[in-house]
């Protein structure tokens, strides 16, 4: 998810780098000037942190753009760890994914700009699979725990599908005007992934028993 909003910081070498402030400052700058035309010097000016310090902490601008994925992964992990093995896995996953998006109003405020940036910039789209790998790994591990007989590839495919569905819901939310809570939009989207065939449909497609002579 996108970083929380934060006020610009004074330039200097902080003892502990405030990554939330860096990400928020970078997002504001990219929204105003564009991503590809923004230099490290521009980012230093916007964040109040020297280019040298930024380059020491971040290997690329894309790494800054995806800083919010780390906290989202932590929220996902906490939600999954707190669930019981007796709970319905689909409900647990849906709730955990929604928690990872967060109902924080500050995230709702910056999410539209972040989503437009991520979905529009080829460089960021190309690195999304790397940025979301920890999030997907966390969910795949939970699915493997609940479905011990499932192949590893299936668990990872399911986790990837949940990530793709959540992101699609967020992009649709942003493009339609960003009304309401983005986490609620994700919850609504993920409910379509809980497939429950009607009883009548299951009966109609059931294999008829062998008829005795």
Automatic annotation (TrEMBL):
In its UniProt entry, the species of origin is given as Nocardia fusca
- Top-level taxon in the UniProt lineage: Bacteria
Upper lineage is:
Bacteria, Bacillati, Actinomycetota, Actinomycetes, Mycobacteriales
Q: Which residues bind DNA?
A: 39-58
Report the protein name in the record: TetR family transcriptional regulator
Look up keyword DNA-binding and say if it applies. yes
Stored PANTHER family: HTH-TYPE TRANSCRIPTIONAL REGULATOR RUTR (PTHR30055), MYCOFACTOCIN BIOSYNTHESIS TRANSCRIPTIONAL REGULATOR MFTR-RELATED (PTHR30055:SF238)
Question: Which keywords belong to this entry?
Answer: DNA-binding, Transcription, Transcription regulation
For this protein, the record's InterPro entries field holds: Homeodomain-like_sf (IPR009057), HTH-type_TetR-like_transc_reg (IPR050109), HTH_TetR (IPR001647), MftR_C (IPR041347)
The answer to whether keyword DNA repair applies is no
Q: Which residues form the HTH tetR-type domain?
A: 16-76
Q: Which Pfam families match?
A: TetR_C_14, TetR_N
